[in-house]
Design a protein that fits this description.
It contains seven helices and 17 strands. It has about 230 residues and is an alpha/beta fold. A five-stranded parallel sheet has the order 2-1-3-6-7, with helices on both faces. A five-stranded antiparallel sheet has the order 12-11-10-14-13. A hairpin with a 2-residue loop joins strand 10 and strand 11. The protein is globular and about 55 Å long.
Length: about 230
C-alpha cells in the first residue's frame, strides 16, 4: 500500500512515519511511505504517481493543504484522504474534498489506526458483482455510498460514478450483507460510513444525497444508525 504524507513540520512528519511503520508491523502490512515537506512537490509527485492514501497537513508554510488537495481532486486523482491539523477550522472543506478522516495533532496511535480503518486498510471485503445495463462490474461494498430505486432500476452511487442495475433493492441487499448498510426507506439503502448529518426526516451523505427516513419506522431507523455509530469510536 502506497502512502504519501505532506507536512512542513519535520518532527511531526517523522512521527507520523514512525507510527505508520509501527502499525504496519503490528498488522503485517506492507507500506510504501513517501514524505514531503512542500505542497508543490507533493502535488508534482502525485500527478505522476498513484497513491492509496494521502495525509495532508492543512497549515503548510508553502500554502494551504486544502487548496493543494483541491487541485489534485480536480485532476480526478483517486486516493483516500486524511487531513492533518491542529484545529477544526477547515472541517467543512475536508468533507467537500471527500476526506476519510480529520486527524488532529498531536498524533495519537489509536486515532491514526481509526483513520487507516476509515481508509479501508484493514478491510478484507471481497468484490461484489453487479450486472449493469452495459456491463458487469465488480465493486467493493465499502466504496458504495448509497443505492436508490428509480423506475425498476437500482442506481448504485460511488464517489467515482453511478451504476444503473436492473434489480430489486432486496437482491442488492442480499449481496451487501455488511453491518454498515442500512435501509432508511423502502427504496434507499445507505452506507453509514458516509453519513454526515442526521435530520428529522433524512440522512445527509457525503456526496450530498439526502436519504429519506421512513416515517413509520423513523425511531427504529435513527436508533439503528446511532447504535452502529457508537461502536465506531
Amino acid at each position: 500500500m502506497r502512502i504519501v504524507a505532506c507536512d512542513d513540520d519535520v518532527s511531526e512528519l517523522e512521527e507520523l512515519k514512525r507510527q505508520l511503520q509501527e502499525i504496519g508491523r503490528k498488522y503485517q502490512l506492507l507500506l510504501d511511505i513517501r514524505t514531503f515537506t512542500e505542497g508543490e512537490q507533493c502535488c508534482e509527485y502525485l500527478f505522476l504517481n498513484s497513491a492509496d492514501i494521502v495525509f495532508m497537513d492543512i497549515y503548510l508554510k508553502s500554502g494551504n493543504g486544502v487548496e493543494f488537495v483541491r487541485r489534485l481532486r480536480q485532476h480526478r486523482l483517486n486516493f483516500k484522504l486524511v487531513f492533518l491539523t491542529s484545529s477544526n477550522d477547515f472541517a467543512i472543506e475536508s468533507y467537500e474534498l471527500e476526506a476519510a478522516y480529520y486527524l488532529l495533532k498531536p498524533l495519537q496511535p489509536e486515532k491514526l489506526e481509526q483513520a487507516l480503518k476509515r481508509c479501508g486498510v484493514f478491510d478484507k471485503e471481497e468484490y461484489v458483482t453487479f450486472d449493469t445495463v452495459a456491463e458487469t462490474v465488480k465493486l467493493k461494498p465499502k466504496d458504495i455510498i448509497v443505492v436508490e430505486v428509480q423506475d425498476k432500476y437500482c442506481y448504485i452511487h460511488t464517489a467515482q460514478r453511478t451504476y444503473k442495475v436492473y434489480s430489486s433493492i432486496n437482491k442488492v441487499r442480499e449481496k451487501l450483507t455488511q453491518d454498515y448498510f442500512l435501509l432508511t426507506y423502502r427504496s434507499v439503502l445507505i452506507n453509514m460510513h458516509y453519513v454526515e448529518g442526521v435530520y428529522s426526516n433524512y440522512f445527509l451523505l457525503g456526496n450530498g444525497f439526502k436519504a429519506p427516513i421512513r416515517v413509520r419506522d423513523s425511531a427504529a431507523v435513527r436508533n439503528a444508525y446511532m447504535q452502529w455509530a457508537l461502536l465506531q469510536d
